[in-house]
Design a protein that fits this description.
globular
């Protein structure tokens, strides 16, 4: 019972939780981005929203960049905080532009993604990530000077 209300952080559990969260959210988003990438590779006409006035194809490519490349970066824990930003923008466009008239039921999933990406932006990727490995290597290099 005492442990139920304990607010002390268990760093191993937090880092493991961040790993599971990163892998899970990246895999979930890849299921949205991969079909878009395949559609782009197949050629043909692209019909996609143009929320920033760039054109349908560039907007489609930006969505693929976020949903595929940035998801892979998050999966690896590489440039994690930077990778969350395009994904949050893409999901905010989904909420406020693509599904603006559809109601909460269609906006709920992208809102969940935004919350997770915002958490990863604040918390970082955790110890089980390439960011952590690179950070440790760099700090060792600078200590030797």
């Amino acid at each position: 019972m005492k442990r139920t209300f304990n607010t002390t952080l268990n760093h191993t559990a937090v880092n493991l939780g961040l790993l599971v969260l990163r892998i899970g959210i990246a895999c979930f988003m890849l299921t949205h981005g991969w079909p878009k990438l395949m559609k782009l590779m197949a050629g043909g006409e692209i019909q996609f929203l143009d929320p920033f006035g760039l054109g349908a194809t560039p907007s489609f490519i930006l969505a693929i960049f976020a949903e595929v490349l940035c998801s892979i970066l998050i999966l690896l824990g590489l440039a994690t905080r930077w990778a969350t930003i395009p994904l949050m923008i893409t999901m905010l466009v989904a909420i406020f532009v693509a599904h603006a008239a559809d109601g909460f039921q269609k906006q709920e999933l992208p809102a969940h993604y935004v919350l997770v990406y915002f958490f990863l932006l604040l918390a970082g990727p955790g110890k089980y990530s390439l960011d952590y490995f690179i950070s440790r290597k760099m700090s060792r290099r600078y200590r030797s000077f």
